[in-house]
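Most newcomers find our protein records easier to grasp once they have seen one. There is nothing in a record beyond a sequence line and a structure line. Getting from the letters to the tokens is the skill we practise here. An example says more than a description, so a record of this kind follows:
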Amino acid sequence: MASVIVNYSIAVKPGQMVYIWSQAPAAPLMLELYKEVLKAGGNAFMRADIPGAQEVLLQYGSEWALKNPTPVEALSVEEGKFDAYIRIGAETNTRRLTSADPDRMQLVQTALRPSLNKRMERSAQGTYNWCVTLFPTDAYAMDSDMNLAEFTEFVFGACMVNDPDPVARWREMGARQQTYVDFLKGKKHITVKGPNVDLSLSVEGRTFMNSQGLRNFPDGEIYTGPVEDSVNGWIRYDYPCIYQGREVQGVELTFEHGRVTRATAKKGEDFLIKVLDTDHGARTLGEFAIGTNYGITRFSRNILFDEKIGGTMHMAVGSGYPDTGAKNKSAVHWDMIADVKKDTTFTADGLVFYKDGKFVI
């Protein structure tokens, strides 16, 4: 897994510096990543947070502390300091922020926004490679209704690292997805209609990206940033929407001229509204995507896997990716997933290209 991430996903070159960030439980993977970076001729800084540190900050930090992240955050994306970034999820308690004050969480997210924007800008310029992955823990296994051994194999299977040549498999996925991206190139208008969705949006001048195990590991999606004021219609998310450790269920969003004008949820509606009010950009779509990894066969309550499930679509309110042409900026990027395997049709400039969970081109 470490070899594929270092040599394929972020493609470390001699003389490059890599920022590796996780929590202490991921030490075995962090050490393997460090080894592979050194073998590739680079070097790495390893940051291993202690579980519980973020809760301490949110409970005891002054307003100044919440608004002023350490200089390490800015250094991690500064040109001339780091060339690549690996973020490893390794939660021991995925519900640890359930009782945290949303207003204080907003202050922290807003303070981190400049670093997030800089990471995306450098990535779009091709000067900063990054990859987000996961280390199996009991917490993730419990969320997925699996034991740790089952969940570990679920992770390795989704990442295709049990294959004799994982990189070849990821490149095959990339080639297949490129046909979809090529079809959508130059298209202007997309509609999605089905039992859970009735949306129209413009992608004129925008670029669809081919996610093939580079920025996310595992991976499997094509995505773009819709024209910010073009989204109209509604969507119902039948999968739970999870953000900052909180689970919101039964989310329905209505869009008018690109803005969320109505938002409801069966559970967690107050939190949903609070996040959407984080800043001006939080009520605008930053991403529109289709999941393509049919090897991920079950919902795990982990967005890294769930947004890639073949036969689903997801959209993110908040910040978009500049390399898609997206202009929306926000401290928020919240992916929400909907099943589109039944009676759902996607058209581009009037041409059907995806129907009932499968590409038809």
In short: Residues 211 and 221 are 5 Å apart (CA to CA). The domain at 2-135 is CATH 3.40.1830.10 (Thermophilic metalloprotease-like). The chain has two domains: 2-135, 169-359. The two ends are 32 Å apart (CA to CA).
